[in-house]
Amino acid sequence: MSEPRPKFRPYTLNVAPDPRDEGGWLWAIHSNGKLIQKSRRKLISEAQAKRDAQGAMEMLLEDRTPD
After folding, report:
1. 56, 29 in Cβ contact below 8 A?
2. Cβ neighbours of residue 11 under 8 Å, at least 6 residues apart?
3. For an engineered disulfide with 18, which of 6, 24, 40, 60 has Cβ 3.0 to 4.6 Å away?
4. 3: pLDDT confidence band, cut at 50, 70 and 90?
5. Which contacts (CB < 8 Å, 24+ apart) does range 26-29 have?
């Protein structure tokens, strides 16, 4: 028997190489396929892009938390 899947996943985080600039990395956060937020600048490594994106994701999740 498998674990039940969550019914609601508010955000999807994508980190990928910048197709226009070799060596650069970008991230984007989507909700139900709609772009919510993306990196404003090129990041120099995948790890840096993930850290930056996770910080942005945490801020979004904090805003969604009920008071």
Report:
1. yes
2. 29, 30, 31, 36, 57, 60, 61
3. 24
4. low
5. 27/52, 27/53, 27/56, 29/53, 29/56, 29/57, 29/60
State the SS3 of the chain.
CCCCCCCCCCCEEEEEECCCCCCCEEEEEEECCEEEEECCCCECCHHHHHHHHHHHHHHHHHHHCCC
What pTM value is reported for the model? 0.74
Integer-rounded Cα radius of gyration of the chain? 14
Q: How far, in Å, are 8, 26, 54, 63 from residue 47 at the CA level?
A: 27, 11, 11, 25
